[in-house]
Amino acid sequence: MTKVDKKKLKKSKTATPVFPESVLKPVSNFLIARLHTLEKSKKKIIKEDPFMDVNRGSDNAASDIEADEQFGHARTSAISKELGKSIINIRKALARIKVGKYGICEECGQMIDTARLMAVPEAKFCASCAAKLEK
Ligand SMILES: [Zn+2]
Questions:
Q1: If you measure from the C-alpha of residue 125 to the centroid of ligand 1, how many angstroms do you get, rounded to a whole number?
Q2: Taxonomically, which superkingdom (predicted)?
Q3: How much is the pLDDT for 15?
């Protein structure tokens, strides 16, 4: 192999994005829109948390109200945790789009199935790695 060939190979390996701009653009728009929606829902859910209510009286509250509040807090914190996870995943996906690594499995480096990306645009692992990691 000549020097020139090596150079060419190296260049084509790093410079080729996985997906063309025409595919990445709508994906990134979709992710940005979803990110905004999720951030809004997260803010809303945090407000719904009864523990966030500053007018909440803790001394003379009836016990059934306390239980309600406990439940409400558990529910809202679970939801906001889930939303937070999705927000992070979407931010990461957007970062991968920027560096031209979108659609590449973080575990094995293979391309993620387009069908999978359609269903889960923020997926960072291919289907088989995701299945392995979930175990
Ligand atoms: Zn993989």
A1: 5
A2: Bacteria
A3: 47
Bridge partners, residue 106, by sequence: none
Phi, psi of 111 (to 5 degrees): -70, 140
70-97 tens-digit pLDDT: 888 999 999 999 999 999 999 999 999 9
Ligand 1 centre and the CA of 18: distance in Å? 15
| Residue 101 identity (one-letter amino acid) | K
Q: Is residue 2 part of a domain?
A: no
Domain extent, residue 56, equals 19-101
> Which pTM does this prediction carry?
0.72
Token representation of residue 41:
């829902």
Q: Ligand 1 centroid vs 115 CA: distance in angstroms? A: 14
> Is 35 a domain residue?
yes
Say if 84 falls within a structural domain: yes
Vertex 91, ends 26 and 124: CA angle to 5°? 80
CA of 37 to the centre of ligand 1 (A): 29
Neighbours of ion ligand 1 (CB under 5 A): 105, 107-108, 126, 129
Q: Quick check: is 112 in a domain?
A: no
